[in-house]
């Protein structure tokens, strides 16, 4: 173990595990020759974000710094594993274990490492697709990266929690954040609950034994799911148009007169329209999901309830509803998380409008669409990163708590 602490692989060579020892030696030597200088440069860039305006690019230095941190974690993990492996191997030799020959060693190593080899590509992909962007965005929230501090002409500086303080103290940020966050919660709860309730109602109704032409009805109800969502949203955006939309022109004005309802220009009516559209878009999936679950419920349960004199409401409350929730709770939770970050419908319907006086977000903007505007319209990357962190904490906290209440995180023996 002491030899492995001094230099990776020496302990394995001392224990006569030559293949493993040579592998660790090659890894450490390659690190010292090829990546040590790059990691030092990356850590310097992460600490300073550059020192010469016009020459040092702060964001590139931040990227190199994050990559250096990831490389250090990977190398430290391998180094610790090298030390632990040498210690365990020495203990086994002391207890009388004898090294295997080369052929048996290769076979045993393959058997033990096969699951890790199969998951390694996915792990590497997750590191660079999920972990790296996550760390980068978190660090970006503690900088002053915006339109007026854009490299390479200007350097980006670390500002600590200044962006978080401005979000809750500066009036325009505070008012906008409270308004958008509250609407995001309302939008998520109302729109998702409505699509779940409508899907459940239709699934239970179509599953009734007295209903005929079930296959035809189910096919018709699933059709909205077959049409691409962006096409449906754009069609509805045209239908809800204040001036030439068919809803005002052919339905509202003939019934109540006047100029119709300002679906696009009034935040209240725009929000109602978006909720209705999302209900239309979301109920077919819930309907198909609940229909499959209803088919799996044994008819004997309902027959026993009929014998006991149970009403239809009692059968639904004590048989149908518990079975549906038991089988679909994780998927329903995912529906809430998905709608919390449902960018498509907000942007495609009216780009988050209409404008609201005293705020830098539109009347129907949710957090994700506000982040998009801050990033691409006003180039306020640091504040966008702050809001992204808040979004991630809300969604992950809610999802983790709810999943813990279901069977999703429970082992087989705990159920």
TrEMBL record:
Identify the keywords attached in UniProt to this record, alphabetized.
Cell membrane, Membrane, Sugar transport, Transmembrane, Transmembrane helix, Transport
Write down a Pfam family by its short name: BPD_transp_1
Principal localization?
membrane
UniProt-annotated location(s): Cell membrane
Top-level lineage group: Bacteria
Question: Any transmembrane segments, and where?
Answer: 21-39, 59-84, 123-142, 180-204, 216-240, 268-290, 319-337, 381-401
Q: What family is this?
A: Belongs to the binding-protein-dependent transport system permease family. MalFG subfamily.
- Recorded protein name is Maltose/maltodextrin transport system permease protein
- Give the species this sequence originates from: Virgibacillus kekensis
């Amino acid at each position: 173990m002491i030899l492995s602490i001094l230099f990776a692989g020496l302990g394995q060579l001392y224990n006569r595990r030559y293949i493993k020892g040579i592998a660790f030696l090659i890894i450490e030597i390659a690190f010292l020759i090829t990546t040590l200088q790059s990691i030092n440069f990356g850590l310097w860039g992460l600490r300073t974000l550059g020192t010469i305006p016009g020459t040092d690019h702060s964001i590139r230095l931040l990227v190199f710094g994050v990559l250096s941190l990831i490389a250090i974690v990977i190398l430290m993990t391998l180094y610790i594993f090298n030390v632990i492996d040498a210690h365990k191997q020495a203990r086994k030799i002391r207890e009388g274990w004898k090294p295997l020959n080369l052929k048996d060693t290769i076979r045993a190593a393959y058997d033990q490492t096969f699951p890790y080899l199969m998951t390694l590509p996915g792990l590497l992909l997750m590191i660079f697709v999920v972990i790296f962007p996550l760390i980068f965005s978190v660090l970006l929230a503690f900088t002053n990266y915006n339109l007026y501090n854009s490299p390479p002409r200007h350097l980006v500086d670390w500002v600590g929690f200044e962006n978080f303080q401005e979000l809750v103290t500066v009036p325009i940020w505070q008012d906008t954040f409270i308004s958008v966050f509250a609407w995001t919660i309302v939008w998520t709860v109302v729109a998702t609950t409505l699509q779940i309730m409508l899907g459940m109602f239709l699934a239970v109704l179509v599953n009734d034994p007295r209903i005929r032409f079930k296959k035809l009805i189910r096919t018709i109800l699933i059709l909205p799911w077959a049409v691409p969502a962006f096409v449906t949203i754009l069609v509805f955006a045209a239908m809800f148009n204040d001036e030439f939309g068919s809803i005002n022109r052919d339905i509202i004005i003939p019934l109540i007169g006047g100029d119709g309802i300002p679906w696009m220009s009034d935040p209240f009516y725009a929000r109602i329209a978006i909720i209705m559209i999302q209900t239309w878009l979301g109920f077919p999936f819930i309907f198909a999901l609940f229909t499959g679950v209803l088919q799996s419920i044994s008819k004997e349960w309902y027959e026993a309830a009929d014998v006991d004199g149970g009403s239809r409401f009692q059968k639904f409350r004590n048989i149908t509803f518990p079975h549906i929730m038991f089988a679909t709770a994780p998927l329903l939770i995912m529906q809430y998380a998905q709608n919390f970050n449902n960018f498509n419908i907000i942007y495609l319907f009216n780009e988050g409008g209409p404008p609201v006086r005293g705020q830098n977000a539109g009347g129907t903007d949710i957090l994700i669409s506000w982040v998009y505007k801050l990033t691409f319209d006003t180039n306020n990357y640091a504040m966008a990163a702050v809001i992204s962190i808040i979004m991630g904490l809300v969604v992950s906290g809610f999802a983790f708590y709810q999943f813990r209440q279901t069977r999703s995180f429970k082992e087989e023996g705990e159920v």
